[in-house]
Specification:
- The chain is extended.
- By secondary structure, the protein is an alpha/beta fold.
- It is built from seven helices and eight strands.
Amino acid sequence: MLTWTCTGSGKSGLYNNYYRHRDNCNYCTPEFEKERQKKLEEKEVAIQQHFQVLDDTNRRTPHEPQQHYKLIVDSTFIAIPEPHDSEQRKAYYYAKSPTNYAIKVQIACDFRHRIVHVSECYHGSIHDITVLRESGLLEHVEESIQIIGDKGYIGEEYVVTPRKKPHGRELTQEDKDFNRDINSAKAAIENINQRLKTYAILGGVYRGPVDNFHKITKIIQVIAALCNLNLNKHPIRR
C-alpha cells in the first residue's frame, strides 16, 4: 500500500490521506499556497471585471454609439413560493414557473454569446416588453445596434421579432426563412438562460426575501459573471 512521509514534520501515513495533511501542514502548505492564491486572485479579478461590465450595463450605459452590435434579448424567471397575500399572488403570478409565482429578469447577450446586460428584477406578471422599455436598453438603440427578440416583443419598433402569420393566409417562404434565422439566433440566449439555471439559487425555488429586488439583481449579476467565465471555457456551439 502506498504511503508518504513529510520531510519537514516527519509525519507519515497512507497516500489517500496525503492531501488532507498537505493542506494543514506548516511545511507543505507554503509550497502550494502561492500557486493556490494566484489562481484565486486571477478568478476574483475575472469575476470583478465581468461584474463591472454587468453593473455598468445596468446603469443604462450598455454600448458606445460608435460600435456595432447585435444583441439577443429574452427574459427568464426565478421561481418563488406562493405568496400569502392575494395582491402579491397577483403581482408575482407567472404561469411558466413550477410554483406559478416568480420574479422576472431580462438578459441580453451579444453574438459572441456573452451576457452584456442584466436588468433589474420585476414581478412575474410584468410583460416582457414592459421590462425591456423600462430597462434602459432601448435608450442606446441606433442604426448601429440591432436587438433580436421573440414574439413577446412584437410591437416594439426597435426589436426584430419573428413575423406573425397573416390572418387567413400562410407565411411566405421568405417569411419562413426569416423566422428560421431569428429562431436560430434566439437559441443562444435560451441556452444561456438554461446555463444560469444550473446555479441552484436561480434554478430552484428562491428562499430569500422576495421583495428585496436590489439584492436579487446583484445575485443574478454575479451569477451572470460566473456564467460568462464558464462560457469562455465551454462556449456555445455555433
